[in-house]
Every structure is written in structure tokens, then in C-alpha cells.
Amino acid sequence: MSERRPAPSPVQVGLIGLFVTAIVTAQLTASKLLQFGLPVELPVVGGALVLPGAALAYALTFFASDCYSELYGRKAATVVVNVGFLMNLVMLVLVWSTIEAPALPQSAAGQIDLAAFRNVLGSGTAIVVASLSAYVVSQNWDVFAFHWIREATDGEYLWLRNIGSTATSQLVDTVIFVLVGFYLLGSTPLSTAVTLIAGQYLFKLFVAVADTPFVYAVVGAVRSRDSASATAYSRPE
């Protein structure tokens, strides 16, 4: 009889769940443009950050993947990233299947506006192509960069690999997503696309720095728990 594998911990399941939830949410909210006022004028972006709605949810994916990479290793994190990509495709198939399925007549009581339903849930082809292209490149780069910095620093300076990997991967993600979805396949002028890139990247960079204490908290809590469990297990009866 084969031995049973240990069940995944709540933290491991939670990080995977957060990653996939944020990825799917980002896909559904990608087409809305947001604007956040700034207290000062900045080059390129001016007095406000303009960014796609996906930036809010997508920023969380790098927090989840960095925690997962630190705790469970590069191979495990790469599996999560690629599973997340497949779940993105599953979500798109389910959404578009629902959009194209026969609907109750709109005159029926309680029926929503079908055109609005399609516009809200059915992202344009350009946004879908841009989002998936940016995802598969930036997320795999994030895992690679995180562990490259980890090896280069002998496992020290968690803050450096968290910020360094996220800052570079977010730049890759932002440039691919905006240029492909809004400029190359869309109708956005290049100057506006550059403004979108700058605004989105500044926001993501802020999140990368701000989430570092939370990465330390999650990693520290898990390792403390594992250390306590190992001590209790090895203690003689």
C-alpha cells in the first residue's frame, strides 16, 4: 500500500487561491481605465495615474507568487503560475459560453440588459491577447528572477528579491499588456499608451514596496509554525 502524501497546509492553499482569484479578477476588470489623482505633478503621467482596472487585482498575484516561491521553491511556484494560466483560459471559455448561450427574452421580468452583460464580461480580443501574453511572460520571469536573486544573495535579503523580482516582472507585464492591447491591437495613440505604461508601473512599483512587510509576515509565520511543529515532533515522549 502506498503512503499517503501530507495534506497541503491552509497557507499553501490560501496562497494558491489568492493567486488564481486575483488572476481571474484581473482578466474580468482589464478593460476599465482608472484614474487616481496625485498630490504633485510627475513627468509623463502629470497630476494623475491612469491605469487599466486589472492593475489592482494583478498586483496581488506577485505578492502571492513571491510568498509561494520563498516557502515552497521555484518548481512549485512555476506549476502554480502555469496552472493559473490554464485557469484563465477556462474562465474565458466559461464566460464566452455563457455570453453566446441562448438567453431568456429581454422582455421577461428581471432579465438584465444582454448588451451590457456582454460589454462588462466579454473583454475585447485585443485585451485578452495582451493580458494572456503579458501574464505568461511576466509571471514566469518573476519566479526566475526571485530565485536568481535568492541564489545570488545566499538566501539573504528577502526584501531585495521580493522588490527586485516584482519590479522587473511588473515592468515586463505592463509594457507588453499596454503596447499589445491598447496600441498595437487597439486604437490608443502611442503617447497615451506611454502614459498608461508609466501610470500602471508606478502603481505596481508602489504595491511591490508596500507588500514587502506582508511577505515577511507570511513567510515568518509559516516558518515559525513549521519550526515549532518540528521541535514538538522530535521531542522524546
Average pLDDT, rounded to a whole number, is 84
Classified by CATH, the class is Mainly Alpha
| Rg calc | 21 Å
The number of E-state strands comes to 2
Annotated CATH topology: Arp2/3 complex 21 kDa subunit ARPC3
Instruction: Output the number of helix runs.
Output: 8
Beta content: 5-15%
Largest sheet: 2 strands, antiparallel
Describe the strand arrangement of the main beta sheet, using strand numbers.
1-2
General description of the model:
The protein has 237 residues and is mainly alpha-helical. Helices cover 73% and strands 7% of the residues. The protein contains 8 helices and 2 strands. It has a two-stranded antiparallel ribbon. Helix 2 runs parallel beside helix 8 (212-234). The longest helix is centred in the middle third of the chain and has 28 residues, at 125-152. The radius of gyration is 21 Å and the shape is globular. It starts with 9 loop residues before the first helix and ends with a helix. The model has no long low-confidence stretch (mean pLDDT 84).
Task: Please outline what is shown here.
This protein is mostly helical and 237 residues long. It is built from eight helices and two strands.
Q: Key terms for this structure?
A:
single chain; 237 residues; mainly alpha; Arp2/3 complex 21 kDa subunit ARPC3; two-stranded antiparallel sheet; 8 helices
Task: List the SSEs and their pairings.
Layout: H1 10-28, E1 33-42, E2 46-52, H2 54-72, H3 74-100, H4 114-121, H5 125-152, H6 158-184, H7 190-210, H8 212-234
Antiparallel strand pairs: 1-2
Helix pairs in contact: 1-2, 1-3, 2-3, 2-5, 2-6, 2-7, 2-8, 3-5, 5-6, 6-7, 6-8
